[in-house]
Amino acid sequence: MEAIAAAHSHGGAAASSADMAANESSPRLLSQVHKLIIPPIPCSFPWKNHPDYKQLTVMSDAWVLAQFSNMHGAHGRPSSFSADHLINSAFHQVATLAFSNGLSPRMPPIIKMMDWFFMIDNILDDPQEMGADLARADHLVDNVLTVFLGTYQHPSSSPSAPLVSIITECAAEWWAEMCQGMPPKLKARLSKAFCDYLEANRQQVPFRNSRHLPDVETYLKIRADSIGWRPCAVVIEHAQAFELDDEALSHPLLIALHEATVQHITLVNDITSFKKEYMQGDFCNMVFILYFKKLYDSERVEAGRPEPTLQGAVLEVVKMIKERDDECVRLMREIGKCEKLMGKDGMVQYLEGLGLCMSGNLYWHLVSDRYGICATTDIHVTPPDMLAHHHLIINANQEASHIVPCGVMSDASIAPS
């Protein structure tokens, strides 16, 4: 999910503004964008898909057609708001990969949740919709919040705003289904995670309109909520019918693992969605943040050092992803040695679930046509065998081999070394 965060620069942050970025949109910079090479993206966790993938795909497609067929974006344009786009982008696949161990009866509302996630993400990101319109974004967020706060009343109170009504009513449907039999504390945590997600996206609208790029630390802090992964972390438990206790959730090792995981997921999204966002006029992405930080660095200019390149920024993000990947492996091994944590019901399944979130997120970004990468170029003509029992090895661009070492997925043991 690429809910884009934008914030004012802090302290020693890069003071690059979007206006500066716009001025850089020269043919030279555009040429750099089109020539970018995405090298193999590090992820140390094996992937697998849900055994009911085919049946869940049929269910998802039918639900999307029923809910979103009459949904149009600004000026009547279908684009990312059409049912066909949702189906072709295979958003449900993010759920079948991330929750591949989920109990089959619990998967349908999780699939609906993921389809809904991408739809509301499209609306809150799009400058022609609510991405730059605080009043409309407030109206949407306020309506959807009623679902997670338990104050929703059917039908939605926005008959004059079809997008708001559809998004709110769809949320009410899958939320009611998902919460059936859910333990109260788990439901409260999931509700809070969704509320935090919505509030983070609400805050992004004035940030985006401020025309300033954030510093790295601020950006990652905002994206930790706006990327939408924190609700998915709670769903790992729900999907497999266990519940971690407060002692486990508050343990420093697990908190650190959550932070490394969400940053890995965020940075994978940034590096794969960068070109798409640039072409839409959005500059608040880690690739651009690193690029403009160096471009306007006074010490670099005074020393007469060469201008940075977007390819160099891409490689920096890959390095950051590798660091987060290494940190996740290290933390999982540390947790594997902690008897107090490993004695908790569901901990082994939870750690595996975190790895599946990372590998599934990477896999989907590379094979979906949403970002124009399509590692399998004819995926919608001849889909890959999603049930194959092997590790994902995708070289996103063969030309990348001479730029960085080839990183592929390999099993990462959580057992003590």
Automatic annotation (TrEMBL):
Show the Gene3D superfamilies listed in the entry. Farnesyl Diphosphate Synthase
Tell me which Pfam families the record gives. Terpene_syn_C_2
Q: Which UniProt keywords apply?
A: Lyase, Magnesium, Metal-binding
Q: Does the keyword Lyase apply?
A: yes
Q: What is its EC number?
A: 4.2.3.-
Name one process (GO BP) from the record: isoprenoid biosynthetic process
Keyword presence, Lyase: yes
Which terms does the record give in the GO molecular function aspect? Answer: metal ion binding; terpene synthase activity
Required co-factor? Mg(2+)
Q: Give the family this protein belongs to, as stated in its UniProt record.
A: Belongs to the terpene synthase family.
Recorded protein name is Terpene synthase
